[in-house]
Write a structure and sequence with these properties.
Elements (H helix, E strand, L loop, with lengths): L2 E5 L2 E4 L4 E8 L8 E6 L6 E6 L5 E3 L7 E6 L4 E6 L8 E7 L11 E6 L1
Length: 115
Protein backbone atom coordinates (compact mmCIF):
# COMPACT_ATOMS: atom_id res chain seq x y z
CA UNK A 1 0.00 0.00 0.00
CA UNK A 2 1.34 3.41 -0.96
CA UNK A 3 2.22 5.57 2.01
CA UNK A 4 3.43 9.12 2.26
CA UNK A 5 4.74 10.18 5.67
CA UNK A 6 5.61 13.82 6.17
CA UNK A 7 7.64 15.12 9.11
CA UNK A 8 9.72 18.05 10.25
CA UNK A 9 7.10 20.71 10.82
CA UNK A 10 6.84 22.84 13.89
CA UNK A 11 6.54 26.32 15.32
CA UNK A 12 9.14 28.81 14.20
CA UNK A 13 9.58 32.56 14.34
CA UNK A 14 9.38 34.71 11.27
CA UNK A 15 12.69 34.53 9.39
CA UNK A 16 13.45 31.08 10.72
CA UNK A 17 14.05 27.80 8.92
CA UNK A 18 12.63 24.30 8.85
CA UNK A 19 13.44 21.18 6.85
CA UNK A 20 10.55 18.93 5.93
CA UNK A 21 10.91 15.29 4.93
CA UNK A 22 8.54 12.98 3.13
CA UNK A 23 9.17 9.25 3.12
CA UNK A 24 7.35 7.56 0.26
CA UNK A 25 6.75 3.83 0.16
CA UNK A 26 6.18 4.02 -3.59
CA UNK A 27 7.48 1.66 -6.22
CA UNK A 28 9.41 3.40 -9.00
CA UNK A 29 9.80 6.50 -6.82
CA UNK A 30 12.84 7.52 -8.79
CA UNK A 31 10.73 7.87 -11.93
CA UNK A 32 8.16 10.19 -10.41
CA UNK A 33 8.02 13.94 -10.28
CA UNK A 34 7.37 14.69 -6.62
CA UNK A 35 5.91 17.81 -5.14
CA UNK A 36 5.33 19.62 -1.89
CA UNK A 37 1.89 21.07 -1.37
CA UNK A 38 0.43 23.18 1.39
CA UNK A 39 -3.00 24.03 2.65
CA UNK A 40 -3.63 27.03 4.84
CA UNK A 41 -6.84 27.35 6.86
CA UNK A 42 -9.75 28.24 4.61
CA UNK A 43 -7.67 27.98 1.45
CA UNK A 44 -7.23 25.49 -1.36
CA UNK A 45 -4.30 23.13 -1.35
CA UNK A 46 -1.54 24.50 -3.55
CA UNK A 47 1.63 23.11 -5.09
CA UNK A 48 4.65 25.05 -3.84
CA UNK A 49 7.57 23.06 -5.22
CA UNK A 50 8.23 20.10 -7.48
CA UNK A 51 11.22 18.05 -8.56
CA UNK A 52 11.39 15.79 -11.59
CA UNK A 53 13.09 12.43 -11.92
CA UNK A 54 16.10 14.29 -13.33
CA UNK A 55 16.01 16.77 -10.44
CA UNK A 56 14.67 19.72 -12.37
CA UNK A 57 12.98 21.97 -9.87
CA UNK A 58 10.04 24.35 -10.03
CA UNK A 59 8.69 26.69 -7.41
CA UNK A 60 5.65 28.79 -6.83
CA UNK A 61 6.44 32.50 -7.00
CA UNK A 62 5.52 32.88 -3.35
CA UNK A 63 8.39 30.63 -2.20
CA UNK A 64 10.97 31.13 -4.93
CA UNK A 65 14.35 32.02 -3.50
CA UNK A 66 13.40 30.86 0.00
CA UNK A 67 12.48 27.17 -0.37
CA UNK A 68 14.59 24.39 -1.87
CA UNK A 69 13.25 20.98 -2.84
CA UNK A 70 15.52 17.96 -3.10
CA UNK A 71 15.24 14.19 -3.23
CA UNK A 72 17.11 11.05 -2.26
CA UNK A 73 15.96 8.22 -4.49
CA UNK A 74 17.83 5.61 -2.47
CA UNK A 75 15.83 6.58 0.60
CA UNK A 76 12.66 7.29 -1.41
CA UNK A 77 12.48 10.61 0.38
CA UNK A 78 11.80 14.15 -0.77
CA UNK A 79 12.84 17.18 1.26
CA UNK A 80 11.81 20.80 1.50
CA UNK A 81 14.29 23.24 3.02
CA UNK A 82 12.40 26.36 4.02
CA UNK A 83 14.34 29.49 4.86
CA UNK A 84 13.16 33.01 5.52
CA UNK A 85 9.81 31.76 6.72
CA UNK A 86 6.93 34.22 6.82
CA UNK A 87 3.60 34.16 8.63
CA UNK A 88 1.88 33.47 5.32
CA UNK A 89 3.79 30.19 5.03
CA UNK A 90 1.73 28.83 7.92
CA UNK A 91 -0.07 25.74 6.62
CA UNK A 92 -0.18 21.99 6.67
CA UNK A 93 2.44 20.70 4.23
CA UNK A 94 1.98 17.52 2.21
CA UNK A 95 3.95 15.68 -0.41
CA UNK A 96 2.57 13.82 -3.40
CA UNK A 97 3.30 13.29 -7.04
CA UNK A 98 3.53 16.47 -9.03
CA UNK A 99 2.28 18.47 -10.74
CA UNK A 100 -0.91 16.43 -10.34
CA UNK A 101 -1.31 14.61 -7.06
CA UNK A 102 -2.31 11.03 -7.76
CA UNK A 103 -1.34 9.19 -4.61
CA UNK A 104 -3.28 8.91 -1.38
CA UNK A 105 -2.50 11.89 0.79
CA UNK A 106 -0.52 11.48 3.97
CA UNK A 107 -1.35 13.20 7.22
CA UNK A 108 0.82 16.20 6.45
CA UNK A 109 3.02 18.18 8.81
CA UNK A 110 1.99 21.46 10.40
CA UNK A 111 4.18 24.51 9.92
CA UNK A 112 3.34 27.53 12.02
CA UNK A 113 5.28 30.77 11.63
CA UNK A 114 4.84 33.36 14.33
CA UNK A 115 5.32 36.99 13.42
Amino acid sequence: QVQLVESGGGLVQSGGSLRLSCAASVNFFRLYTMGWYRQAPGKERELVASITSSSEKNYADSVKGRFTISRDNGKRTVYLQMNGLKAEDTAVYFCNRGPTASLNWGQGTQVTVSS
